Amino acid sequence: MKCIRVNASRQYNVEIQHGALAIAGEETLKATHAIGKALIVSDENVFPLYGETVAESLRATGYGVHTFVFKGGEDTKSIKTYEAIIAALSENRFTRSDVLVALGGGIVGDVGGFAAATYQRGIKLVQLPTTLLADVDSSVGGKTAVNLPTGKNQLGCFYQPSLVLCDTDALSTLPEAEYKNGCGEIIKYAVLAGGELFSMIENADIRTQYADVIARCVTIKRDIVGEDEFDTGRRRLLNLGHTFGHAIEKCSGYSIPHGAAVGIGLAMMCRAAHKRGYCASDVPEKAEKLLAKYGMSDAADFTAQELYDAALSDKKIAGGSVSLVIPEKIGCCHVLTVSCGDMPGWLKDGGAR
User: What is the tally of helices (H) and strands (E) in the chain?
Assistant: First the structure.
């Protein structure tokens, strides 16, 4: 087992191992120090695969288990789903000594985490990510949210879990598209941090080294979150590729999933940064080559104006300016604040029509 300790407003472990879901009950008890009720929040794809394994483990440890299973998909990361989870907690008389267990990918973790954060001003939360993207990124760091019609993650808060338990066996059932979705975030981390991680995924396939890659990404994020939990300083670097990526997601009607959109957004930012003299030509070349290695696109067929309009609701916009994460070289990026009016030019330089 690999164990990474996160030091934030709540300290917790990220544990990475084979067969972790089968011991979710005992690990939840160790992390929360209380036995009561547990609500497993999951989606219709994940729960049939792993729901009963987790429920049995929780029951064997002494928890009274309840379940909430929803359809899943970006359109269900909504106030409606959030309200339904809150209703399930309330109707089953959950208290602050009980726990919500989020079993699934990033959407489950985000909406389930937001429900845990706000029900009775916060109940215990355990994240059981089952996708590569959730393992390496969304389950760690405490960001929880739902979408609004105007954009992604517009309603949410920071709320750290009591435990993140990554079962690498769950990745064996990932569809290819979901695997690539995770690769997009991993490649972002590789460009951001460079060094060991970039070499790891450049020289060997991510599938052959899941535990090591997950641990490296989580360690990078742990170090940044420990310094800037609430996203006002260094943590903004983790948004590399995300401003353009979120716009791509929205323009596609979310048919392009998050990790794939981040990969495209990353490539666009690298190209724009090179064109504007912030980095050498090897930065976009290396990013594009790594995306191609994992069968991922580095461009989307939207105009700069379409992407600009979609980006105007981005959380990184404040006072008529937007924060962009600019690569200087592989392993070195900085945050640049530019006028929102300049964004179409950045998008065009990144390859938008």
Answer: 13, 12
Q: What's residue 150's pLDDT?
A: 86
> Which architecture, in CATH terms, is 2-173?
3-Layer(aba) Sandwich (3.40)
Confidence check: pLDDT of 12 > 90 = yes
Alpha helices, DSSP H, located in the chain: 24-32, 52-61, 79-91, 106-118, 132-133, 176-193, 195-203, 210-227, 242-251, 258-275, 282-293, 304-311, 343-349
Q: Which residues contact 259 (CB under 8 A, 6 or more apart)?
A: 133, 180, 181, 182, 183, 184, 185
Most distant CA pair in the chain, distance: 60
Predicted confidence (pLDDT) per residue in 282-292, tens digit: 999 999 999 99
Contact 149, 227 (CB under 8 A): no
Query: Does CATH place domain 176-228+235-349 in 1.20.1050.10?
Result: no
pTM value?
0.95
Q: In what order do the strands lie in the sheet with 163-167?
A: 2-7, 11-17, 163-167, 124-129, 99-104, 37-43, 64-70
